[in-house]
Amino acid sequence: MVRCAGRGPRRILDAVIELRRLTKRYGGALAVDDLSFTVEPGHVTGFLGPNGAGKSTSMRLVLGLDAPTSGVALVNGRRYASLRRPMREVGALLDAGAVHGGRSAYNHLLCLARTNGIGPLRVAEVLEQVGLSGVARKRVGTFSLGMKQRLGIAAALLGDPGVLMFDEPVNGLDPDGVRWIRDLMRTLAHEGRTVLLSSHLMSEMALTADRIVVIGRGRLIAEATVQELTARYPSLEDAYMALTAGSVQYGASR
Ligand SMILES: Nc1ncnc2c1ncn2[C@@H]1O[C@H](COP(=O)(O)OP(=O)(O)OP(=O)(O)O)[C@@H](O)[C@H]1O
């Protein structure tokens, strides 16, 4: 079920993301406002909200890329900074464009792998998994957006982590790529991993996610299964529109 040495299924089944009263203020703007929820293993959890709702900020706080103003974000019960080999616990794709264009895909992944004691065999394995083996020696700067998304996903998978977060991974992908991501998310959850996925594509989210967390203006609006929402509303898109009505605003101080 789980391929990488040193990781058993039990460990993966324990993997969770927890936000506890998480708050992040940038100057006068409240990006995340007293936000609490838990992302459980074995499901794809869709993370929804209007532009500026605080989804990316929440993910950045989980990854220790930014410090919370108050509250905590935990991976497997611990703050990111206290994880000994973080890539083995949590993998993430936040910004596919944030890569060194001069390196080859292989070297990019190898550099990341080394920082976490991961060997070159695993680099070859994830390149194969995301369909980039044939272009592994090409410079990342020559990659299309879809190829960069795949490379970012390969980086997230490197440590075979139990927790995975993907911020809008289908942006700019062709239909083949969109379906590939959908299948990959489903497979990762089926393996018992915890998968948090943000996207603005409601039709795609309805096909991919089991559970949904909706936020607006940094606050929790709803937590439900896709089944519960589509039983109550004509579609997930209708549910989203109804739930977020009144939460759409961009960058205003609050
Ligand atoms: N480094 C920063 N400095 C100042 N404000 C920030 C910073 N990062 C995010 N914000 C603000 O925090 C709020 C939440 O932004 P965030 O990117 O988390 O939203 P989002 O839900 O991911 O939006 P989108 O769907 O557009 O990607 C926005 O008002 C944004 O302008």
Radius of gyration, whole Å: 18 Å
How would you write the strand order of the largest sheet?
5-6-7-3-8-9
Gross CATH architecture of the largest domain? 3-Layer(aba) Sandwich
Q: What's the overall geometry?
A: globular
What is the fold named in CATH at topology level of the largest domain? Answer: Rossmann fold
Order of helices and strands: HEEEHEHEHHHEHEHEEHH
Mean pLDDT: 90
Helix content: 25-40%
Which homologous superfamily in CATH is the superfamily of the largest domain? P-loop containing nucleotide triphosphate hydrolases
- What is the CATH top level name of the largest domain? Alpha Beta
Task: Compute the separation of the termini in Å.
Answer: 46 Å
Q: What percent strand?
A: 15-25%
Main sheet: strands, sense, barrel: 6 strands, mixed
Classify the secondary structure makeup into a structural class: alpha/beta
Count up the domains: 2
Contiguous uncertain segments of 5+ residues: 1-10
Summed up, what is this model?
The chain is of the alpha/beta class.
Can you give a write-up of this model?
The protein is α/β, with parallel strands linked by helices and 254 residues long. It folds into 2 domains: 10-80 and 165-254, P-loop containing nucleotide triphosphate hydrolases (Rossmann fold); 100-160. It is built from 10 helices and 9 strands. Strands 5-6-7-3-8-9 form a 6-stranded mixed sheet, with helices on both faces. Strands 2-1-4 form a 3-stranded antiparallel sheet, covered by helices on one side. 41% of the residues are buried. Mean pLDDT is 90; it is low at 1-10. The structure holds adenosine-5'-triphosphate. Adenosine-5'-triphosphate (ATP) is lined by residues 26, 29, 31, 49, 51-57, 251.
